[in-house]
Amino acid sequence: MIRTACTRILYRGFSTSANRSKAANMPLKFAANISMMFQEIPTLAERYQAAKNAGFQFVECTFPYQEKAEDLSKARIAAGLDHVLINGYPGDLSSGDLGIAALPDRVKEFREKLEISIKYATALNCKSPGKARIHIMAGKKPHNADAATLKKMEETFIENLKYAADALKRDFYHCQIMDGNLTQNLKEQLPYIGHIQISQVPDRGEPDASGEICFPYVFSLLEKAGYDGYIGLEYKPRGSTLEGLQWMKQYGY
């Protein structure tokens, strides 16, 4: 079964440590998603400083490709922030693409466009030492796809992931929608998780919004497990971005 949202992969070479720290109450590292947050400000380049002013040290984004890598790099450096994750090339968004890594007829395109993603990840220094962090997107399965088609897509996805990455990214919003059972999934898969993204279900709002996920409990699990990766805030603010950040103070961060 192809899961285009719940199981995500990062660019090859980034892997979580098999000896992840076991210290209780590990401080959590939140990363503002500057594609979804700070939309009051028109460009990604300008949002780096806004994130810095809001108290963030780490940021991520979805698709940076509409702005020049050099401009984004200068803005990140000027703000003094760490950019920890970008999405890989999505295909043609205007035509409905949302990733192409599982599409058998677009393997060549996927591997060629991966180089563009690497360029941006490198320019933004979005990596652990020597290892670029890029979220590879599988894409959409066709409506009424038969079993043979889905099997071929899954095989293609696996081969492209072998080509591109060796660490998982966990998206709590999509995981709750698709699977539920977050606690057990988290405990079983944490050794393989390299990046986490959060938003409330079902409205994809801030973590303190009324919804299906109790984030104080999730954060407590991560702290006790010694999770040392980043937590991307991939939510849609219900009002202004800064007003929506009150949840961090309420939760003690």
TrEMBL record:
EC number, as in UniProt: 5.3.1.22
Pfam families recorded: AP_endonuc_2
Domain Xylose isomerase-like TIM barrel: 49-170, 171-250
Catalytic reactions of this protein: 3-hydroxypyruvate = 2-hydroxy-3-oxopropanoate
Keyword line: Isomerase
Alphabetized SUPFAM superfamilies for the sequence: Xylose isomerase-like
Matching InterPro entries: HyI-like, Sugar_Epim/Isomerase, Xyl_isomerase-like_sf, Xyl_isomerase-like_TIM-brl
GO molecular function: hydroxypyruvate isomerase activity
The keyword Isomerase is annotated on this UniProt entry: yes
Residues annotated as transmembrane: none
Top-level EC class: isomerase
Record-stated family: Belongs to the hyi family.
Function: Catalyzes the reversible isomerization between hydroxypyruvate and 2-hydroxy-3-oxopropanoate (also termed tartronate semialdehyde).
PANTHER family on file: HYDROXYPYRUVATE ISOMERASE-RELATED, ISOMERASE
Protein name: Putative hydroxypyruvate isomerase
Source species of the chain: Batillaria attramentaria
